[in-house]
Design goal:
Radius of gyration: 30 Å
Distance between the termini: 45 Å
CATH topology of the largest domain: Serine Threonine Protein Phosphatase 5, Tetratricopeptide repeat
CATH superfamily of the largest domain: Tetratricopeptide repeat domain
Oligomer: single chain
Number of strands: 3
Structural class: mainly alpha
Number of helices: 19
CATH class of the largest domain: Mainly Alpha
Largest sheet: 3 strands, antiparallel
Order of helices and strands: HHHHHHHHHHHHHHHHHHHEEE
Strand order of the largest sheet: 2-1-3
Length: about 400
């Protein structure tokens, strides 16, 4: 069975062989050369069929060396080297293409882009940055080079350069970059907030909203900033806006939001907000919060009845654990010993289950990340809705 990598080699090699075969009928000397190359190609193909990739690669390297017109074979070999983790060999292959005379501008640019990707894979970011910057300044294949530069500046956490090049990429390619740019401004706002530079943090929050008017992350940072400065009314507005822009992030702001309501004595507003969230949010967090308010204002019985009704519509391990707590505290219920045991089991399930998952690649996590550690996508990790999760 031929592997996927073998097919990658076979396609350009077959093209090279077909081209060589087409040259038969030329001069006798040229025909002998073609015959030798064709024989070499078939030996390489035999190695591929027997899954001896190392030997096959060496054969095709010989073809590429003997016939200088096999540019596509060299590109394919370099790509395969990089995929196999042989970055040094990929670098040498693409360096030879960059230095080679007679290539078209398109081929030369492809070689520079490929070499830059090799440097990135090898961790030589300075070299990669230089190559991609030169391409951008030349105006050749600017979108691809700009994308690579944005990746480099994200890795280096140089958010100002990342913003600059993302704006340039948007202008060059026409692809909207506002949501990503908003995250870059949020990184700067978070840094300023941790350094107690609230004015700068507010400026960057404003920049984030300018890039993405529905930026959830900007709202979260703004709410935390207002909270730290004792502006509960402003924090409430920020946190409520977060939930209404993207209700999936309700668990991230619900705790501090409820604390603000309580400090301001706005119980009716809190209950109204929670009821609104229950109608649109599939998880159990607003149900549990509202049950606590009902228990405080009306007693255990009404809270227990409310929670039981809600759990029939949206069963949840967390909700069941809360219902067990209410049952234990209610002297009119059945004996509590078995319920305590069940609660211990439930607590363990909650602790051991991933609470977040990347909507793009499926990466699971117990804590929230704004950038997925796996696929590096921004804003794609959200709370899970499951029996053991939220």
């Amino acid at each position: 069975m031929m592997t996927h990598a073998a097919w990658l080699l076979l396609i350009p090699a077959a093209a090279a062989a077909g081209w060589l075969a087409g040259r038969r009928g030329g001069e006798i000397k040229g025909g002998a050369r073609v015959s030798r190359l064709s024989n070499t190609y078939f030996r390489g193909l035999n190695y591929l069929l027997n899954e001896q990739q190392d030997k096959a690669i060496e054969i095709f390297l010989q073809i590429a060396e003997v016939d200088k017109d096999t540019v596509e074979t060299q590109f394919a070999l370099g790509h395969l080297f990089r995929r196999r983790g042989e970055v040094d060999r990929a670098i040498r292959m693409h360096q030879s293409l960059v230095a080679r005379h007679g290539l078209s501008e398109e081929q030369k640019t492809r070689a520079v882009l490929a070499l830059g990707e090799d440097y990135m894979r090898a961790g030589l970011l300075d070299r990669a940055e230089t190559l991609f910057t030169d391409l951008v300044q030349m105006g050749v294949h600017a979108p691809q080079a700009l994308r690579q530069l944005i990746a480099i500046y994200q890795f280096e956490r140089d958010w100002y350069k990342a913003i600059e090049h993302a704006l340039q990429y948007e202008k060059t390619s026409g692809e909207p970059m506002g949501k990503i740019i908003a995250h870059f401004h949020c990184e700067l706002a978070e840094k300023a907030r941790l350094e107690n530079r609230s004015d700068l943090a507010r400026e960057e929050i404003g920049n984030a909203y300018a890039a993405d008017s529905h930026s959830v992350r900007a709202g979260v940072i703004e709410g935390r900033l207002e909270l730290a400065e004792g502006n509960d009314a402003a924090a409430i507005r920020s946190f409520e806006r977060v939930a209404r822009h993207d209700i999936e992030f309700l668990p991230e702001i619900l705790g501090p939001l409820l604390a603000c309501y309580e400090r301001r004595g706005e119980t009716a507003r809190a209950r109204g907000f929670l009821q609104e969230m229950i109608e649109h949010y599939p998880g159990v967090s607003p149900v549990l919060a509202l049950a606590q308010l009902i228990q405080r204002d009306e007693g255990i019985g009404p809270a227990q009845a409310f929670l039981a009704r809600q759990l029939q519509q949206r069963p949840s391990v967390r909700g069941e654990a809360a219902l067990i707590d209410l049952s234990i505290d209610n002297p009119g219920d059945d004996p509590a010993e078995s319920l305590r045991t069940l609660k211990q089991i439930t607590d363990q399930l909650v602790v051991r289950t991933n609470s977040y998952r990347c909507q793009r690649c499926g990466f699971g996590a117990r804590a929230h990340h704004w950038q997925c550690p796996s696929c590096k996508h921004w804003g794609s990790i959200k709370p899970l809705h499951s029996a053991a999760g939220d």
